Amino acid sequence: MDGVVHGTAVDRSQVYVPSDPDFDTVDVSWQGPARRERGKLRHVTYDSPGHVTPAGKNYLVLYTPPGYNAKRAKPYPTLYLSHGGGENEMGWSTQGDLANIMDNLINDGEIQPTVVVMPNATGYAASTYDQLHRTDLIERIIPWVEEHYNVSASAADRAYSGLSAGGMRTSYLLLNNPEQFGYYGLMSAGLPTGTTLTNEQATAMRKVSVFVGCGWQDPINVGFSTLHRGPFRAVRDLTAAGVHVQTDFIDGGHEWYVWRILLRDFLTRVAFLPPTTASDAWGS
User: Fold this and answer.
1) pLDDT tens digits, one per residue of 235-252
2) How far is Cα 148 from Cα 264, in angstroms, rounded to an integer?
3) Which of 105, 58, 57, 53 is nearest to 79 (CA)?
4) What angle is formed at CA 166 by the lines to CA 154 and CA 239, rounded to 5 degrees?
């Protein structure tokens, strides 16, 4: 109807009240509304040839940080953040509380101002390892973002992370397109079943920063059906291949409480920070 914005929306509502140190021993006020400058969210439709639902187009939600400057001399880093199963591009900006978390971390100086891109990874025809979505991401979404926003075109200034099904998308990119991002954050997901890392894959992964996080009580730790072997085994397999992995296992299940914390930890401990392993040439 006229006046209604086309796109997708979350089909549920919730009341979410993060605890404050004035009332509890745990401080998650960094998830509450920012008391200082705030960034902006924008819902975008872009051309996506071959996308099935909707046909030939798809959606993004973009976050720009407080004080975003389209003419800033130094382009902004970009986090590409993926939703879980049964969700879409709206997941992180609604239940994930993305804007408040980013605003607070940036205002408090814990992370640098960052543009966040939240694609819709659903609506594609079936493909092995989400190949159609990965192609759309690499050939259309990233170029579109870099054309319309003042963000760096260097892979070293791009990070990718996601939860559950989005964690699997992170895994697929890490295995098949490691050159596209400098930082990969797997939340509540592991490597695909049957994965045997080649020397070429392991060598490429040693050049990027890898983060694996999950809730201790999440049943997905032991693996999920035939899709993946779980976060525990991902840490083991990557480490055995010589890939340094930063881990983050916290009390909690397969839930947004965990993923909000993992997002903060990925951003403050891994994304856009220097590599955690030393080059063989250092100290020589």
Assistant:
1) 999 999 999 999 999 999
2) 26
3) 105
4) 75
Q: Tens digits of per-residue pLDDT, 41-89?
A: 999 999 999 999 999 999 999 999 999 999 999 999 999 999 999 999 9
Query: Using CA atoms, how far apart are residues 213 and 167, in angstroms rounded to an integer?
Result: 10
Say how far apart CA 277 and CA 97 lie, in whole Å. 32
Amino acid present at 10? V
> pTM for the complete prediction?
0.91
Single-letter residue type at 171: S
- List CB contacts of 260: < 8 A, sequence separation 6 or more: 28, 31, 96, 97, 101
3-state secondary structure 63-106: EECCCCCCCCCCCECEEEEECCCCCCCCCCCCCCCHHHHHHHHH
Under 8 Å between Cβ of 216 and 247: no
Under 8 Å between Cβ of 252 and 187: no
> Quick one: how far is CA 258 from the chain centroid?
14
CA 142, 81, 104: angle at the middle one, nearest 5? 115
Q: What is the rounded CA–CA span in Å between residue 68 and residue 196?
A: 43
